């Protein structure tokens, strides 16, 4: 009789092949820009393109601001809900899951309708306003992942005891958040930050409809006009995502190792 371990390894091998073969095929195709030999010509062409550098830099900057804004919104909210409003936790969790249910195109059309040049807050009427609107859209899309990561981090600490100890020493709410709670959930915040970074780098709908020079629309434009460069961009985008996932694992393991030493 075939053991359960055999079927487990078979399922694992099937999953690896299912995900790895398309990536290997894309990688192999991206190396065939020069006829008859493998070369990095497609990657050289992409990296030498000024638009690549501009759009990638723009998306990295937007990702950094999105992470900061997301952390400033999520950490105090998750902390306050766990400390003072535990009965509201299911409601808050439901709200944070809405971006997974509502398509991004609906969100961006709502933004355009609410914040167009004829509205009370015409954010789309200027480049800075549109950038702020795009950043808030990114923060909305990353909200489920950031909130889940921070909430999981808060579960591992005694929030009430830490708060009472800090208050007994004369600390205010801002000091408690910045110097007591945040250092204890920093690994969770970093995990959410890496996921947010991966989302922002590859996002297309919001940036395209708001007409901003982000990396996602650049990949789509390159895919519509060139042959081998889109495959190179796909490999680069996948590499960024996997690096972010690897950094999450690294930070998590480092945190466990540090806690074990303590």
UniProtKB/TrEMBL annotation:
<dbReference type="InterPro" id="IPR035906">
    <property type="entry name" value="MetI-like_sf"/>
</dbReference>
<feature type="transmembrane region" description="Helical">
    <location>
        <begin position="230"/>
        <end position="252"/>
    </location>
</feature>
<keyword id="KW-0813">Transport</keyword>
<feature type="transmembrane region" description="Helical">
    <location>
        <begin position="185"/>
        <end position="210"/>
    </location>
</feature>
<protein>
    <submittedName>
        <fullName>Spermidine/putrescine ABC transporter permease</fullName>
    </submittedName>
</protein>
<keyword id="KW-0812">Transmembrane</keyword>
<dbReference type="InterPro" id="IPR000515">
    <property type="entry name" value="MetI-like"/>
</dbReference>
<keyword id="KW-0472">Membrane</keyword>
<keyword id="KW-1003">Cell membrane</keyword>
<feature type="domain" description="ABC transmembrane type-1">
    <location>
        <begin position="56"/>
        <end position="249"/>
    </location>
</feature>
<keyword id="KW-1133">Transmembrane helix</keyword>
<dbReference type="Pfam" id="PF00528">
    <property type="entry name" value="BPD_transp_1"/>
</dbReference>
<keyword id="KW-0997">Cell inner membrane</keyword>
<feature type="transmembrane region" description="Helical">
    <location>
        <begin position="91"/>
        <end position="114"/>
    </location>
</feature>
<feature type="transmembrane region" description="Helical">
    <location>
        <begin position="57"/>
        <end position="79"/>
    </location>
</feature>
<comment type="similarity">
    <text>Belongs to the binding-protein-dependent transport system permease family.</text>
</comment>
<feature type="transmembrane region" description="Helical">
    <location>
        <begin position="120"/>
        <end position="141"/>
    </location>
</feature>
